[in-house]
Amino acid sequence: MSRLKYKEDIYTLAELIKLRSLSKLYKEGEVMDEENGNSLDISEIDSLREFYFDELMGVGEKSKIIREQKKKETEKSLEDKFLNKTIKPDELLLLIKMTKSRPFQVSYDNYMNVNLDKPKPNELNFTDYGKFMGLLDLMSYSNRIKNHKKDVEFKESFLINKLDFTNIRGLNSFLARLKKVSLIAHSGHGKNKFIHINPTYAKRKIIIDITIYNLFKEDLREYLNKYEVRYFELVNQSACTISTIKIIKD
Asked: How many CB atoms lie under 10 A from the CB of residue 137?
């Protein structure tokens, strides 16, 4: 049905639908199909849209539909592999990206009302919790505590002053208390000692990688979806990460 006659005028289906939506004049009467002589009521026109993509769509719209269909087929194939436990890490990573807009991130309601179901640990006093929030304020967008102007990690002396401690012993004691309640974790040793923030307490976006997952998996499993958890379990290995805070020794 490529040409339609309505009250002596000839239209394509797309043109007639557009006229119908713009004018009350096209809400009554009959339409004649020039190709086969069949007639139909004008009220039936809208129901024909899905059968005439060539009339209604440009090349871009058709390509979009094809892409969406292929995505659904790929997602279904990967989901079947996941359920059958035959999926590979790279395939699982693709499935994660297809099903989650912000993969490997702790999900918050919004930037003001964050993570309300993960309260302050009871064992931690409000003074230490406030200093922990101050520690988070130093995090850059790469999720590391660093000097934004010089793009380097802060030294211990800076953190001592910033968090209002009198000496290194006070800072280390504070970090030990945070570690005890799983707000942070340590890795490495000597000059390559790192501090990792627990994303479920961070109250801001932190990208989860295998290092962070291994350190805080008991907390993170309730925030990550089943695909992300399986992915980490498949590719479990040590790595230095963008969610890492490195403190340089003075």
From this structure: 9
Structure letter (DSSP) for residue 181: T
Nearby residues of 13 by Cβ (< 8 Å), 6 or more positions away: 1, 2, 4, 45, 48, 52, 55, 56
In this predicted model, what pLDDT tens digit does every residue of 9-28 receive, in sequence order? 888 777 777 777 666 666 66
The answer to whether the predicted template modeling score (pTM) of the entire model surpasses 0.70 is no
User: Distance (Å, rounded) from C-alpha 153 to C-alpha 86?
Assistant: 42
At 246, which helix (H) or strand (E)? strand 244-246
- Say if residues 220 and 231 touch (Cβ distance below 8 Å): no
Chain-centroid distance, C-alpha 200: 16
End-to-end Cα distance, the chain: 80
CA dihedral for 160, 166, 172, 175, sign (positive or negative): negative
Strands 194-197 and 244-246, how do they pair? antiparallel
Tell me how far CA of residue 158 lies from CA of 151, 153, 155, 163, in angstroms. 15, 10, 5, 8
Contact indicator for 8, 1 with CB cutoff of 8 Å: no
Q: Please, what is the angle between helix 59-83 and helix 89-99, to 10°?
A: 130
Instruction: Please check the confidence at residue 105 and state whether its pLDDT lies above 70.
Output: yes
Calpha distance 26→94 (Å, rounded):
48
**Identity (one letter) of the amino acid at 93?**
L
